[in-house]
Amino acid sequence: MLKVSDVPRSALWLGLAGLLPFLWGVATIHVDLLYGFGQRNLGGRYVAPFVLLNYGQVILAFMSGVIWGFAARAEGEVQALGFGLSVIPALWAFFFVGGGPVSAAIYLIAGFIGVLMIDWFFWRNGLAPAWWMALRIPLTAVVCLCLAAVAFG
User: Fold this and answer.
1) Which residues, other chains included, contact 137 with Cβ-Cβ below 8 Å and sequence gap of 6+?
2) How many CA atoms are closer than 13 Å to the CA of 8, on its beta-carbon side?
3) Per-residue pLDDT for 99 more than 90?
4) Positive or negative torsion for Cα 153, 63, 91, 78
5) Sign of CA dihedral 12, 17, 21, 27
6) Of 33 and 1, which is predicted with more confidence?
7) What is the pTM of this model?
8) Region 91-101: what's the mean pLDDT?
9) CA torsion sign, 3 to 93 to 49 to 54?
10) Contact 144, 152 (CB under 8 A)
11) Cβ distance 69 to 55 under 8 Å?
12) In three state form, how does the secondary structure of 82-144 look?
């Protein structure tokens, strides 16, 4: 049974902190006061939809590095497959996340769901920590819901 309580506290808190730019982006979509504050004090890159899309690309590429680390623990064909899988999220973010905000958000959602499937592959093969999916599933759900504010808002 996957339980968030099994996730090391440092990983949990840092994972939750990583959600802050996504949550801020959604807040600036729905609260004009926050949008104005962010625009004036932080600049246009740090309000929605830009912060959601830019940060989403960064995190998707970051996840490629995490997955590369899991692949490095494998051997033989699983390692080769793992290295191949590990570059997909970064390449996905680079090649597909562009154009308008709606299509970019949809591609990011697809990318994060894809990463979750790759995470599952490594977890199932004992290459990710036992608690990994207990962390990744809720984080991915929140990220996808936040991006949905742009994609389907």
Assistant:
1) 2, 116
2) 6
3) no
4) negative
5) positive
6) 33
7) 0.95
8) 92
9) positive
10) no
11) no
12) HHHHHHHHHHHHHHHCCCCHHHHHHHHHHHHHHHHHHHHHHHHCCCCCCCHHHHHHHHHHHHH
